[in-house]
Design a protein that fits this description.
The chain is mostly helical. 72% of the residues lie in helices and 1% in strands. It has helices at 29-33, 39-50, 56-68, 71-99, 101-125, 129-138, 145-156, 161-193, 197-215, 232-236, 240-263, 270-288, 296-306, 308-314, 319-347, 353-382, 384-387, 389-401; strands spanning 2-4, 7-9. Strands 1-2 form a two-stranded antiparallel sheet.
């Protein structure tokens, strides 16, 4: 303010410099992934429906053995369910690819849930043994929720290879997390609440999660009209032995670890120690999603090397080295599974992705059953330490199987 003659002049104060703008903080790959519209909704349903996948088997065993007093019967019933799944799951996946996820997955889930409830009723009422086999076989219609979720990511991220790799890594970590938490929750419910509580809770979670998942219609892959060319089985034929051998790694490692811990008088520690392997795989999967994808052979070489660690650690007769070795072995499996599943995406004919991924998962389950049986035989005849040679050998066989697989260095997405 100043006076000039008889005039009062108001002068504006000097303008202050504008504060410097802080540049926006870059988003991490997973934050960018779930910023896409609709992804959080179908992922919530996916995780809810996927958790029971780690619950059904152990819940059925504990319920049947507890009520009927026969582990042989319980094992036979669950084995029948796995065999039925191997036959039915690819057909369910084919229908989903042909008619859409919501149209097929919901009724297929309802049949599976009714099978679980029938199993509970038959066990509870003392029905004939054949009814247990029939009821559990009906659960084979359970859709491959992991495959459907991966199909959605592939549809949404078809033009973003880097984001697609991150999504596939997240899905593998989700698999490990659910198969780590599922058995723990099932064992708690069956032993603390009721023998039937594990199966009932798993059925409720499966139905609720599938309804949430399929309600997210905006992210559902479109159904391609017209004839479908190419066979997923023929296209993935060279890759299926790799998944079978990887399943043997998982199945034999679990049996060998349980037997080794039991021999050390630490049977009660089996759950937490085995969970370390799944935790290592979960953490490695999330980390791998932030990195540039590696070639399939590179991942398999790392896995084959890591599978020798539990064998060496078991020979020490101490718990700590074995626990650390299992953690490291688990960390080597996630990158292999992520990269192998990406090869499934690349090789599967267009419009049949869910069927292709279900074939891969079926091969893994067959390998787990084979590995568990072979691992148990080795434990009985050669001891638990020698049984650790089987997962190491299976990892080498998986590496050898890549010689007939069309593998391109980092071309991990379709």
């Amino acid at each position: 303010m100043a006076v000039t003659g008889s005039t009062l002049v108001l002068a504006a104060p000097p303008a202050l410099p504008a504060p410097a703008r802080t540049p926006p903080r870059p988003q991490g790959p997973y934050r960018r992934l779930f910023a896409l519209p609709g992804t959080r909704g179908f992922t919530a349903g996916n995780l809810l429906a996927r958790l029971p996948m780690g619950m059904f088997g152990i819940s059925a065993v504990m319920m049947i053995a507890g009520q009927r007093g026969s582990y042989a019967l319980a094992g036979a019933v669950t084995a029948t369910g796995l065999a039925a799944t191997a036959l039915v799951a690819p057909w369910t996946a084919r229908l989903i690819d042909r008619h859409g996820q919501a149209r097929i997955a919901v009724p297929a889930t309802l049949i599976a849930v009714l099978g679980s409830l029938s199993l509970i009723a038959c066990v509870r009422t003392g029905a004939p043994d054949w009814t247990l086999f029939a009821s559990y076989a009906a659960t084979a219609t359970t859709p491959n929720i992991g495959g459907m979720s991966r199909a959605r990511w592939t549809h949404l991220l078809r033009d973003s290879p880097g984001a697609h790799h991150t999504a596939m890594s997240f899905e593998q970590a989700a698999d490990e997390l659910c198969f780590m938490l599922g058995p723990v929750l099932a064992a708690f419910l069956c032993s603390v609440v009721l023998p039937e509580a594990g199966t009932f809770t798993a059925a409720v979670l499966l139905l609720a999660g599938m309804l949430v998942f399929t309600s997210c219609r905006a992210t559902q892959p479109p159904v391609t009209a017209g004839p479908r060319h190419g066979s997923p089985l023929r296209a993935l034929g060279p890759l299926l032995p790799l998944f079978l051998a990887t399943g043997v790694v998982f199945g034999s490692m679990e049996i060998a670890s349980i037997a080794r811990l039991d021999a050390l008088g630490l049977g009660a520690a089996s759950g937490p120690v085995l969970a370390l392997q799944a935790a290592g795989s979960c953490a490695a999967g999330l980390l791998y999603g932030t990195m540039r994808p590696r070639g399939l052979r590179t991942c398999l070489i790392a896995m084959a090397a890591a599978m020798t660690l539990p064998w060496l650690a078991a020979s020490t007769g101490a718990l700590l080295p074995l626990a650390c070795a299992l953690l490291l072995a688990g960390m080597a499996t996630a990158p292999t599974m992520v990269t192998a599943m990406s090869r499934v995406h690349a090789l599967t004919p267009e419009g049949r992705l869910n069927e292709g991924m279900t074939l891969a998962v079926t091969a893994i389950f067959a390998g787990i059953a084979l590995g568990a049986a072979a691992g148990g035989t080795l434990v009985d005849h050669l001891g638990p330490t020698t049984a650790y040679a089987l997962p190491a050998a299976a990892a080498v066989l998986a590496l050898a199987a890549t010689k007939v697989v069309p593998v391109s260095g980092t071309a991990d997405v379709p």
